[in-house]
């Protein structure tokens, strides 16, 4: 099936297109920089593949967790492209994409996915692969590296391993550097589409785990006033 997938949840921008047989890929700087480069890169990759947006079965994006700016960028671009081409949108969990990338690289079937959440925290989730599909064992968590729960024999995969290598408790499984790549999302997409997880463009949403990164101006002023009034 023809698909477009992209992820901007980390410092690496990842885009991939398939016509059902071949795959075209692009990577670049992610984060805030992706807001200006994502759409031109998508259009260039579609041109290479000889595909139009309205020929795609779905537009796939990494829905989170990850960088707030990156998730908003990916979601808004997915919505805009899908509205214009009248295509459905398939949000895919970035931690599941990390697990899939680790499986593709090393054949692991039980993965604790770990993404750097900044602010001295890690996004984590446990995924088990069986009969061609990933199952998430528990909901996502946001924890400090040293407070991560371990599962003996499960591989640990993600970009948090390099950032917090000495603080993440060791497990008996492999440690694998992996990102939520667009090619991983292309491999995940057929089963998720078959399971009915595509949505109309206006229902596509990023998934934030941390409610907010910074306090609002009103919150900071209220805190200052409370401190000033304290005896």
Strand percent estimate: 25-35%
Class from secondary-structure proportions: alpha/beta
Mean of residue pLDDT values: 91
Q: What's the main sheet like?
A: 6 strands, mixed
The number of strands is: 11
Q: From the alpha carbons, calculate the radius of gyration and give it in angstroms.
A: 19 Å
* Quaternary class: single chain
* Low-confidence residue ranges: 212-217
Percent of residues in helices: 25-40%
Counting DSSP H or I runs of 4 or more residues, the number of helices is 6
Which H/E pattern describes the elements?
EEEHEHEHEEEEEHEHH
Question: Ends: how far apart?
Answer: 67 Å
> Can you tell me the overall shape?
globular
Q: Brief overview, please?
A:
This protein is α/β, with parallel strands linked by helices and 231 residues long. It has six helices and eleven strands.
């Amino acid at each position: 099936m023809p698909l477009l997938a992209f992820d901007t949840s980390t410092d690496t921008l990842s885009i991939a297109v398939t016509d059902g047989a071949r795959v075209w890929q692009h990577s670049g700087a992610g984060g805030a920089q992706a807001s200006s480069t994502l759409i031109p890169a998508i259009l260039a990759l579609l041109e290479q593949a000889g595909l139009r947006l309205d020929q795609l079965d779905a537009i796939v994006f990494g829905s989170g967790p990850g960088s707030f700016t990156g998730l908003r960028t990916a979601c808004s671009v997915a919505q805009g492209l899908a509205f214009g081409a009248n295509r459905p949108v398939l949000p895919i969990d970035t931690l599941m994409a990390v697990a899939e990338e680790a499986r593709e690289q090393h054949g692991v079937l039980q993965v604790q996915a770990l993404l750097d959440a900044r602010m001295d925290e890690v996004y984590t989730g446990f995924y088990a692969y069986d009969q061609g599909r990933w199952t998430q064992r528990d909901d996502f968590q946001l924890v400090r590296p040293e407070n991560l729960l371990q599962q003996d024999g499960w591989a640990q995969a993600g970009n948090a391993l390099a950032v917090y290598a000495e603080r993440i408790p060791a497990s008996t499984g492999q440690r694998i550097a992996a990102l939520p790549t667009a090619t991983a999302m292309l491999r995940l997409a057929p089963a998720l589409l078959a399971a009915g997880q595509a949505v109309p463009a206006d229902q596509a949403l990023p998934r934030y785990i941390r409610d907010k990164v910074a306090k609002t101006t009103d919150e900071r002023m209220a805190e200052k006033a409370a401190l000033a009034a304290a005896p």
